[in-house]
Amino acid sequence: MTVEDVRALGQSIRAEIGKAVVGHDATVDLLLVALFAGGHILLEGPPGTAKTLLAHSFAQTVGLDFGRIQFTPDLMPGDIIGANLFNFQTSTFTLTRGPIFTELLLADEINRTSPKTQAALLEAMQERTVTIDGDSLPLSARFTVVATQNPIEQQGVYPLPEAQLDRFLFKQTIGYPNAEEERRIIAGHGARQAAMSPADWGVERRADAATIDAAVATVAGVTLVDDVIDYIVALIRGTRAVAELESGASPRSGAMLAGAARARAALDGRDFVIPDDVKALAPALLRHRLILAPAAEIGGRTVEEVVTQIIDTIEVPR
Q: Would you give the distance in Å from CA 71 to the centre of its chain?
């Protein structure tokens, strides 16, 4: 597969998702980058903004096995990863695999369960393995988490631990549609009495496991020159030198940014990364990894503003 094939595949997937989901073009682009870069994505927005439909449509289009976990306050870690259950007929323990054993996992409203249960995803997201009673069980190499969460200001939510947030490649904030998009939503969905699946909207599969693997291999071969590597290092280290931030980005985030930039370049039909790839992805990659200092928070500053300031002050290689 060539980078031009990756670009064409991305366009085909975008068109299929557009049959069911109105707008969210930037979010679909981040989903594609995350898939081809081997990362996970966190979608934050108020209820009713098509986060779940978007994830389901994406899974339908890329041809991956799809699983969904509805996170609730009473959910336990075993409900996610599974457990060895005793079989009284055979007097033996039988492994019952949880819903995490899939390829694309929708972790719906992930911040409505306790941090203890959220932590059940840490090993799976980082190492793509699950440990049950001391036995390490592999997950699919294509295992991808698309998590949704409601804004922290809403009732009944728990903040995600920093270690969990750092495992997400991107955090995308989803807002309300503009007037034209909202009109299209009402015109297309308003006559439906019940929620429809992506297949009901005509969303078809445009890839399979072999195609995704080939695209991932192509992305890994995209050229990343030294000047762009230095630019990424400067951005990451710049987050640790700003007084308005109490905590900067980890070294892992720099490696993730490089991989994501490769995926964006391939989706644009290029076999080399340019600084614009890094600049375009940096806000979504950094916004959930940085913690504002108390003084900056009291002053009304936001992480997005600080990230933009850092990007503007770092010299772009030519």
A: 17
